[in-house]
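Figure 6 in text form: structure in, sequence out.
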């Protein structure tokens, strides 16, 4: 017999009393994306540094990964990158990040992202970012992760995914209560009121 613990949400989540020491950010590594996404990543990184919150992320130096890490470092903040060994061999790691931890594979990387993390923020990204976001939502669905998950919908990027999640609810693959598992904001600046910061 397999026992699965399910999250039950009876009211809108209130995160304003939760401590925020570390936040994991999922985001793109592609350097070829529009400036609006880069600007929002930089805004998020500056705000993390200003609030004294450590960035936990994928360790990369390009794309939104590079922009958010650069902004935290420029603001005197703390950054921890987590990267599989094969990415180290390809020299994808951010040279300015002192706390760059190498792990065996992508599965271990994603588990390490969530250790001691006080919230997850998903900026726009490709298949890796989407996979990470849907996995952490699944973990929350199963009661394995109970912290805030924020989706930053810069430039309406996540609208198609949000429509798909709405359809999952409409078609009864999820319940309406499961909509409380994530919070959608329009920009990096909108993250902080949700977290009470």
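Output sequence:
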């Amino acid at each position: 017999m397999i026992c699965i613990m399910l999250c039950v949400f009876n009211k809108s989540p209130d995160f304003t009393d939760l401590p925020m020491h570390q936040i994991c950010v999922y985001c793109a590594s592609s350097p070829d994306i529009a400036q609006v996404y880069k600007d929002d990543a930089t805004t998020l990184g500056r705000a993390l540094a200003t609030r004294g919150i450590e960035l936990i992320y994928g360790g990369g130096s390009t794309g939104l990964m590079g922009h958010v890490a650069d902004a935290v470092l420029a603001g005197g903040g703390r950054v921890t990158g987590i990267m599989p060994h094969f990415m180290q061999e390809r020299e994808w790691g951010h040279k300015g990040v002192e706390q760059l931890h190498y792990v065996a594979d992508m599965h271990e990387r994603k588990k390490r992202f969530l250790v001691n993390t006080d919230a997850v923020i998903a900026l726009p990204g490709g298949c890796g970012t989407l996979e990470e976001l849907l996995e952490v939502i699944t973990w929350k669905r199963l009661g394995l992760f109970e912290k805030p998950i924020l989706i930053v919908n810069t430039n309406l990027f996540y609208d198609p995914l949000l429509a798909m999640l709405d359809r999952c609810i409409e078609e009864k693959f999820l319940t309406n209560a499961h909509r409380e598992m994530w919070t959608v904001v329009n920009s990096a600046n909108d993250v902080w009121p949700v977290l009470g910061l």
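Caption detail: Helices lie at 35-50, 63-74, 85-89, 106-113, 127-141, 159-170, 191-195.
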